[in-house]
Amino acid sequence: MPDKLLILGGTHEAYDLAECLVEQYSWKNLIVISSLAGVTGSPKLPAGQVRIGGFANTYNRGGKSVRSSILGLRKYLLQEKITLLINATHPYAIQISENAHAVSKELSLPYLRLSRSPWPKKSGDRWIKVKDLVSASEYLKSEMEKTNSGPTKQIVFLTTGNRSLELFQQCKKLKFLVRTVEAPENFMKTAGTKFWKEAEFLRARGPFTLENELALFQKYGVTMLVSKNSGGNSTYPKIEAARKLKIPVLMVDRPSINSANLCQQVNEALDWIVQKTKLKK
C-alpha cells in the first residue's frame, strides 16, 4: 500500500511541494492530495489529487462550527486512510492550523507545519508592531485619528485580506484603500449605496512589483500601510515601497505555532517525508 499524504495548501510552498512530490514519486509509492479552502474563485489547482472546501461539510451534523470542522477533518483523515499530514496553509490560518495539530495528535498521525519565514525588519523600515487585527484597528482609532483633524484625511492602505474588515470600518476619521484577492461582498456597492463610504476597494492578486507598488502609493497618497507579516516574495514589494517612501507600517504579528515539527523550506518538508516513509530521495 502506498503512503497517502494530505497537504493543507493554498500557499506557494504547498503548490511547490505537491509538484515536486508528483514529479519525483509514482502514485504507487505516494499518493498526494492537496486540500484548498475554496475561499477564492477558480483557484489554481496543484499537482496530484485535489479536494476543495472546508472540512465541516465532511461532518454533516451541527453546521459549520469549529467542532464540526475538527470532526470533519478527523473523519476525512480516517476515511481516506491518510498516513502523513502537512499543514502548508497561510501563516495566519489560525483555525485550520489548530484543528490539524489537535487531530493529528489525537490520531498519532505524523504532522508537519510548513510555514515560510517572516519578513525581517530592515534599516529604514518604520514598523509599528501590533498583536492582531483588533489591536491594529484600535491603534488606528486611538493614535491616527488624533492627528487627523485637518481637512485632508490620512489614507490607510489595508492589505490584510477579506476577514475582519468591519473592525476598520469603525475608524470613521480615516480613509482606506483596501486591496483583496476577492471582492468583499458585504462592503461593496449594493443598489446604489456603499456600506463603507470612506473606503475604496481594489481587487488584485500577487506577485506585485516595486515599481507598481510605488506608483499605487503615490497615486492614492497613502500615509500608512497595514499588513500581516506574511513572508515570501509575492507581496513584499509593498514593504519595500513603504520603506522607500518613509511611510509607517502597522505590522500585525504572526500567531504562535503549536507544533514542535516546524519547517520553513520545501526541501525540509521533502526530507521529513522521506524520513517518515520508505521513500528514497
Give me some keywords for this one:
about 280 residues; alpha/beta; Rossmann fold; 2 domains; six-stranded parallel sheet; about 30% helix
How would you explain this protein's 3D organization?
It contains 8 helices and 12 strands. The protein is an alpha/beta fold and 281 residues long. The protein folds into 2 domains: 136 residues, Rossmann fold; 126 residues, 3-Layer(aba) Sandwich (Rossmann fold). Helix 3 links the parallel strand 4 and strand 5. Helix 1 packs across helix 8 and helix 6 crosses helix 7. The radius of gyration is 21 Å and the shape is elongated. The two termini are 19 Å apart.
List the helices and strands and how they pair.
Elements: E1 3-8, H1 12-24, E2 30-36, E3 49-52, H2 66-79, E4 84-87, H3 94-107, E5 111-114, E6 127-130, H4 133-144, E7 155-158, H5 165-169, E8 175-180, E9 199-203, H6 210-220, E10 224-228, H7 237-244, E11 249-252, E12 262-263, H8 266-276
Parallel strand pairs: 1-2, 1-4, 2-3, 4-5, 5-12, 6-11, 7-8, 7-10, 8-9, 10-11
